[in-house]
Design a protein that fits this description.
724 residues, alpha+beta, single chain, 11 helices, 39 strands, flat, five-stranded mixed β-sheet
Length: 724
């Protein structure tokens, strides 16, 4: 018996030893594969190789754990090395120098990148005006600069003093060295030319919207090397550029101050030629209009009369800057005056005259006699007898515009009756809606006392047909405040017939569809419209190519946030997450487990929830953009949690800036399962995660995993159809 136990124990020890040896060799092979992939800058292969390592109790003592951590960290940092600022890049290069013997390939990759950055600083050849200091190291630190073997001294401003260089146009060897010893050699060409460039035509728009980007460009008599001393007031400088013989500024108009919503964007800049000579200052200004005011000018027919007068006063002051707008406003003012006073004004003899409903009236004359104005704004017209013959009436506004018509006095006490013809049952937020009513007799020109809620009145008029029996109202629905689940657009108005008799007040309402809905567990979903978009990336992995047009046939709702742990627990009764927190995204859930969650939540709410297709996910992520990320072509830490800023864990949803459609964490935090089944029981996840480098958080990035995979970097968000 004892001998049997000894043999059994020996067998167990032998199996353990064999397993440890096998695991050690497997890990060593994975580390070597990761190292080779890192030398080739294939950071996805590095992550894949390290993920295949087997947990081994002796891995720490054998150095495998430490080396794997170093490789993973170096891979994450090298993946975004191109976007690093100079101090962070130098720190990374210094570390690569210290690890040169252990990771020679990393050192070589960093050295090649450092040389490239040095080359960007010092083009070949570099033209220097002998009377100016050499300006280098704006994008990369320069330790020493030598021309023709002589090292130049550094000035207080950090530039290199070139005053000792003799005049002439001969080329001389130049040597540039950075603080770590990386060296680049080029040539410097010294010139003397003190003739300032002459700036010709300056091009800029005369009128822009607040926040709108516009370009101010000028031409010069000779090639422009750079734009300098740029100053902007009333806007924000977005960038400078040189192309051919042109210098240009990109400016975003600021919001004009004050209630008028108008202002000016002024700019001043100079250009420098390729040898350093400065032009005279280039100055100018552009009229700036607040976005809401610009919308009003674009649709003058919908603005209120008080606002139309404010716009009219503004364009009168700036007629030289906005002549087209001035003409449009003047035409609209004249049109409204004539609408206030049609060719034939029908007046009940027992009523006072109320002109100017669509535009303020300063004076009113009848047969050359000015009518007196009452306290309520109506004009007293004494001495009018019943059935009086037509009389000449003249209307004048506060700015001098006039309109003429005829006044006819009649007596008719019958009130018109209105019946609805075309009234929709429901409408979208921010949609234009037309309402039509029919009267039993011809109507006058006045639609009075119009009131609307959850909408903005665009127009209310009698339809211009032969019998003129229809009343048309055009509304624009408004976005409801956050948290509003539903609502209605309501209206009320009164019309008059040609004799001035008023109908009973007409009321109505329609259901207003919101673009945000909330599930039974408090999950917010955003409604997205149908549309087309460009899917994929030209610069990504092979499975992201080629660029193609994606088409979303029907609108749908998608989660504003990734599904949180609190929401998962309400449905499933447990929390499988690795990183715990009620507002953190649920992680470590497989594609198959998500299907169970969707089924239970669908039964609970009586609607069908599902995972987004890849097309729905990328359409929602891009939100109308075509760049690598929905905010641009380079990583912005304000928009995503990834390797550089995550601290190696997930974070509560909604802390980073949303995309243009208001969706949070579409890039980073956790990869999100999608709903299309791949071959071989594999699924696709999108969006990148806390453990990934910047390139893996791009809008087009695809990650293929088994449907049973549970990882601390995997989560999801859900969608539902608008008809569900």
């Amino acid at each position: 018996m004892k001998k049997t136990l000894i043999l059994a124990g020996a067998a167990v020890l032998l199996v353990v030893a064999v397993w440890i040896a096998w695991a050690w060799h497997r890990n060593a092979a994975a580390l070597e594969t990761a190292h080779l992939a890192l030398e080739k800058s294939d950071h996805g292969a590095v992550t894949a190789a390290l993920d295949r390592m087997t947990a081994l109790p002796l891995a720490g003592a054998l150095g495998q754990t430490e080396r794997a951590a170093e490789l993973r960290e170096l891979s994450g940092r090298l993946a975004g090395a191109r976007e690093l600022a100079a101090p962070e890049f130098l720190e990374l290069a210094g570390r690569a120098c210290a690890l040169r013997e252990r990771f020679p390939g990393v050192f070589a990759a960093v050295g090649e990148l450092a040389a490239r950055r040095l080359g960007d600083v010092l083009p070949d050849p570099l033209h220097v005006n002998a009377s100016n200091a050499v300006a280098l190291a704006d994008r990369y630190p320069v330790a020493r600069l030598a021309v023709a073997g002589r090292e130049l001294a550094r000035t207080e401003g950090g530039r290199f003093d070139a005053t000792e260089l003799p005049d002439g146009s001969d080329s001389r060897p130049v040597r540039l060295e950075d603080p770590l010893g990386f060296v680049l050699e080029s040539a410097v060409r010294v010139r003397v030319d003190r003739e300032a460039p002459v700036v010709g035509e300056v091009r800029a728009p005369r009128e822009v919207r607040a926040g709108e980007l516009f370009v101010v460009s000028c031409t010069a008599g000779e090639p422009v090397f750079e734009v300098v001393e740029a100053r902007v007031e009333g806007g924000r400088l977005m960038g400078v550029a040189c192309q051919g013989c042109e210098g240009a500024l990109r400016i975003a108009a600021g919001r004009p101050p004050g209630p008028s919503g108008v202002g000016l964007v002024a700019w001043s800049f100079r250009v420098r030629d390729e040898v350093g000579n400065l032009s005279a200052p280039v100055q100018g200004r552009t009229s700036s209009v607040a976005a809401d005011r610009a919308d009003r000018i674009a649709g003058l027919g919908a603005v209120a009369r008080e606002e139309l007068l404010a716009i009219e006063a503004w364009v009168r002051e700036r007629g030289d800057l906005v002549p087209d707008t001035h003409a449009r406003v003047a035409a609209e003012v004249a049109r409204r005056l004539q609408a206030s006073l049609p060719d034939e004004v029908l007046l009940d003899a027992r009523r006072r005259l109320r002109p100017g409903e669509t535009h303020p009236v300063a004076f009113l004359e009848i047969d050359g006699i000015r009518a007196a104005r009452e306290e309520d704004g109506a004009f007293a017209v004494p001495g009018l007898a019943d059935a009086a013959p037509p009389r000449r009436i003249v209307l004048t506004d506060p700015h001098g515009f006039t309109a003429e018509g005829r006044l006819v006095v009649r007596v008719d006490e019958r009130a018109p009756v209105l019946r609805p013809i075309d009234l929709p049952r429901e409408c979208d937020e921010e949609a234009d809606v037309t309402l039509t009513y029919e009267a039993d007799e011809p109507l006058g020109e006045v639609v009075e006392d119009v009131r609307v809620s959850n909408a903005r009145l665009i127009a209310a008029f009698v339809e211009e047909r032969k019998e003129e029996r229809k009343v048309v109202m055009q509304l624009r629905t408004l976005r409801l405040p956050p948290g509003t689940e539903d609502g209605r657009v309501a209206w009320a108005f009164t019309v008059r017939d040609r004799a001035g008799n008023a109908a009973e007040e007409v009321r109505g309402s329609i259901a207003l569809l919101t673009d945000v809905t909330t599930s039974s567990i408090g999950m917010k979903l955003k409604r997205l419209p149908a549309g087309e978009f460009v899917m994929g990336s030209e610069h990504g992995y092979p499975d992201e190519k080629p660029l193609r047009t994606g088409k979303i046939e029907r609108p749908f709702y998608i989660g504003v946030f990734e599904v949180t742990q609190a929401e998962w627990e309400q449905v499933m009764g447990r929390n499988p997450s690795h990183f715990l927190g009620a507002r953190r995204p649920v992680d470590s859930v497989s594609w198959l487990e998500v299907q169970t969650f969707l089924q239970r939540l669908s039964e609970r709410d009586g609607v069908r929830y599902q995972l987004p297709t890849e097309a729905q996910w990328e359409y929602a992520c891009r939100a109308g953009t075509r760049t690598e990320y929905y905010w641009g072509d380079t990583m912005d830490e304000a928009c995503a949690w990834f390797w550089n800023n995550s601290g190696k864990e997930t974070h509560p949803v909604g802390l980073k800036a949303p995309n243009p459609w208001g969706l949070h964490d579409m890039s980073g935090n956790v990869f999100e399962w999608c709903g299309r089944v791949e071959e071989g029981d594999s699924q696709i996840a999108r969006g990148g995660s806390w453990r990934d480098d910047a390139s893996n958080c791009r809008s087009a990035r695809r990650l293929r995993l088994k449907s049973s995979a549970r990882e601390p970097f995997l989560g999801f968000r859900l969608v539902r159809g608008c008809d569900d």
